[in-house]
Amino acid sequence: MTNSIREIEGMEVIFIVGSNTKETHPVIANRMLKARRRGAKIIIADPRKIPMVKFCDIHLQIRPGSDIALLNSMAKVILAEGLQNDEFIGEKTEGFDAWKASIETFTPEYAEKITGVPADEIVKAARMYGSSRKAGVFYTMGITQHACGTDNVSALANLVSLTGNIGRESTGINPLRGQNNVQGASDAACLPNVYPGYQNVEDPAIRNKFEKAWGAPLSPKAGMMSTVMMNEAAAGKLKALYIMGENPIITDPNMHHTVKALENLEFLVVQDIFLTDTAKFADVVLPASCSFEKNGTFTNTERRVQRVRQAVNPPGEAREDLWIITEISKRLGLDMENSPEKIFTEYCRLWPAIAGISYARLEKRGLCWPCPAADHPGTPYLYKDGFPKGKVNFVPVSYQPPAEVCDREYPFVLTTGRNLFQYHSGSMTRRVEPIESHAGEPYVEINPFDSKNLGISSGDIIKVRSRRGEIAIKARITPRVSEGTVFIPMHYREAAANVLTIDALDPQVKIPELKVCAVALSTAGP
User: Fold this and answer.
1) Mapping DSSP to helix (H, G, I), strand (E, B) and coil, where does residue 228 land?
2) How far apart are CA 448 and CA 412, in angstroms?
3) The model scores a pTM over 0.90
4) 272: alpha, beta or left, given left = phi > 0 and alpha = psi -120 to 50?
């Protein structure tokens, strides 16, 4: 997030795009509701009537995969009505004229044909967001998990730059992280193309810095994204995988393809706290510790580095992740430091943005990076003093349809996501009996109009079929989804949504298009 969670309460306008915030980030949603009680307006762009819609001023119920058309159209309205921030554009951006020309065709009427959102609602939302200078944008995987996910984010950034809603308190563009230390893992280089602190592995000067610090030669090439690894494994080009804290059998698209990839490996290691669906394919399972059984730091969605302290010992033969990694390294011939605090100190030395953070400073409360010096208070919001590269670019992005569109054989759009009670692949929450007794059954949401035409009643077991596979699942008839769209939560292995999803990838960051694919519905029969 560019801005802190606390600042949400000071916003005038909250624009939520592709995020089921009330169910997937309930603590942040409560902050949004506090802001609403203080007078803030809420705009939601989402294909479903998610619970937060009950509290919003405008719900733009878009067709899945049409975000760029909506966002470009809102930008065009803002320009047409003179609501843009000319001072910010002139001083802090570049590429404005080329970008402005690129959205010329995106009238609200044109966008209505693509998105299904009435033109007057697009105008209303654009005026509301464009008129405020204390507006925040919030998004999650409903924006990123598309074959055009990078362009979706660029379209959002263009809108933020157009209004200058960045670099000040209670503004910003705020991706809400999906798990408790995703931000920290990214910061610490759990990405294939960077060292800690997003320092490019292909930059010789940076690589030389880390080679000196670590006392070892480093590859000059970026590694593979995880989705690319699965493709390479399926093709027989990748022989071994070491999977830590992930359950791709359930979470990756096109489950049959993932199974083929794992079965094709010569050697698979899985390190996890439970025997997950993926761990069952492993040659070696390394039992790991959970967050209550280890020491270290986590970094949350607002960039706040926080101490994690061991409360209980790991059960049985489970060990801390760091212990496992350093023991494997030792057996491979390299002794690594195994003190979390000493490793963190090295981490701070190699990444200037956190040079001022220490365990001593984190003893009582966390600090948001950048925090470059020991007397620095941390940074609740970014870009107060400008942008690292001087000016930000407007990036022209054109609408492109999803990788797979509906036809006669597959007339419905499937979108996937989470619900309030289950978490991610269910490897933790589905072991909790009270949760399972309340929300332990998979379901597909179908609009009443579509269910009537198909002769499907609520509670019926139906078949949902795509070009990748088929599942049997209970129907839930609800107006939460629009006509022609169905929704399946991703948590349930017995009717896994990712049996159906397509493994098309964003060409730039290789994220899969988990949010849109074409399916057919039918009664299950006798």
Assistant:
1) helix
2) 14
3) yes
4) beta
Distances (CA, A) of 309 to 206, 288, 302: 32, 16, 20
| Cα–Cα distance list, 88 to 71, 85, 160, 166, 199 (Å) | 19, 6, 11, 10, 28
Task: CATH number for 6-176: choose from 3.40.50.10490, 3.40.228.10, 3.30.360.10, 3.40.50.720.
Answer: 3.40.228.10
Cα 225 from Cα 510, distance rounded (Å):
7
Query: Checking DSSP bridges between strand 267-272 and strand 240-244, what pairing results, if any?
Result: parallel
Q: Is residue 370 reached through a cis peptide bond, with omega within 30 degrees of 0 on the bond before it? A: yes
CA distance 165 to 489: 33
pLDDT tens track of the chain, all 526 residues? 999 999 999 999 999 999 999 999 999 999 999 999 999 999 999 999 999 999 999 999 999 999 999 999 999 999 999 999 999 999 999 999 999 999 999 999 999 999 999 999 999 999 999 999 999 999 999 999 999 999 999 999 999 999 999 999 999 999 999 888 999 999 999 999 999 999 999 999 999 999 999 998 999 999 999 999 999 999 999 999 999 999 999 999 999 999 999 999 999 999 999 999 999 999 999 999 999 999 999 999 999 999 999 999 999 999 999 999 999 999 999 899 999 999 999 999 999 999 999 999 999 899 999 999 999 999 999 999 999 889 999 999 999 999 999 999 999 999 999 999 999 999 999 999 999 999 999 999 999 999 999 999 999 999 999 999 999 999 999 999 999 999 999 999 999 999 999 999 999 999 999 999 999 999 976 5
Does the domain spanning 412-523 belong to CATH 3.40.50.300?
Answer: no
Whose structure tokens read 């009670």? Answer: 421
**End-to-end CA separation in angstroms for the chain:** 51
Sequence-separated (6 or more) residues with CB below 8 Å from residue 254: 468, 469, 498, 499, 501, 502, 503
Widest distance between CA atoms in the chain: 71
- Burial environment of residue 448 by CB neighbours within 10 A (0 to 12, 13 to 18, 19 or more): middle
Specify the fold of 182-368.
Answer: Rossmann fold (3.40.50)
Give the C-alpha separation, 506 to 141, whole Å: 13
The residue extents of the domains of the chain are 6-176, 182-368, 412-523
Please report the beta strands in 409-456, taking only residues with DSSP state E, as ranges in sequence order. Answer: 412-417, 443-446
